[in-house]
User: Fold Phage portal protein from Paracoccus marinaquae.
Amino acid sequence: MAFRLFSREEKQDPAPGKKASATGRVVAFAAGAGRPVWSARDSGSLTRGGFVGNPVGFRSVKLIAEAAAAVPLVCEDGARRFDSHPVLGLLRRPNPGQGRAELFEALFGQMLLSGNGYLEAVGLAASGLPEELHVLRSDRVSIVPGADGWPVAFEYAVGGRRHRFDMAGSPDPICHIKSFHPQDDHYGLSPMQAAAVALDVHNSASAWSKALLDNAARPSGAIVYRGVDGQGVLSAEQYDRLVGEIEMNHQGARNAGRPMLLEGGLDWKPMGFSPSDMEFHQTKQAAAREIALAFGVPPMLLGIPGDATYANYAEAHRAFYRLTVLPLAARVAASVAWWLSEHLGEEVSLKPDPDGIPALAEERDQQWRRVSEASFLSNAEKRALLGLPPLAEG
Assistant:
């Protein structure tokens, strides 16, 4: 019997008697069937301002993407766990220019920046799997919905040229992984969009500080001259001599901290930051914490001061993996496994292996200790609690 588990017949124009979503035609009418649906936010501007031009956004994306890409994956079919499998072989070297970590880091990065990740299948191996996998830039991809609301094609546009990926057949040439978006039927919502206001505040604060240094930077102090006759004006010779003495003896790292000897009615007035300047600096730190909050990164891991949510760095590190990295890695691995199963012709699953994450070693040891000491459980029940497949008979 032909493998029909992943049949896409339900995505075609439903004939009488076939199952189809009642809202599909409404979604297609609202989006415009046959026309590209554009994202509500300009992902290119968000990437430039929130990732390329913002250190907090850059570090948040890099921290999540690198951590999630390094999470080990296990391949199972429901009854056994594979040490070697064609899916694992494909992911180990998905294309000549990338390994597994590089591919998934790019995929996670695209999802964090735009809310959408796209994997392209290239070629066909003997096993039915693609020969290569490539990550597509999400800002170049647009979705073309059909009459039933499902995507019938993906358009990839570069420099005025377009390539259309047909999604009518099976298996799909593109795997689209998107984040939840409450107001968009086709595109996902990225943390960068949620943190857009905080990013603007943080970037504006940095630009203000740079402009202050360039145009109106406050010196450490001022030399005030009070003449004997009440006229606070130095002669040209006196002025040149004073400037030369300051440049030679009181500027630069070599002269840092050297006391200044003033004479002839000269007085030193130190200067500092006003309370409004200090409040502006705190506003910038608050914006940085909001950016980290949108991405799910504990501010402590980014070196942002003033945050005491977690007792120590190790606790913040565990929370980062449990609340941010593992949910993202599990969702992406499940989507990729289902897509590759469609190519392979049999269902396999991919899921993260928390036992291989050093940051969760303490939690793993505690769980294994509790399960192993439970004498009322059988070995099969203990393996099930630990997420391990059952042993083969005999």
In short: The mean pLDDT is 82. The first helix runs from residue 24 to 31.
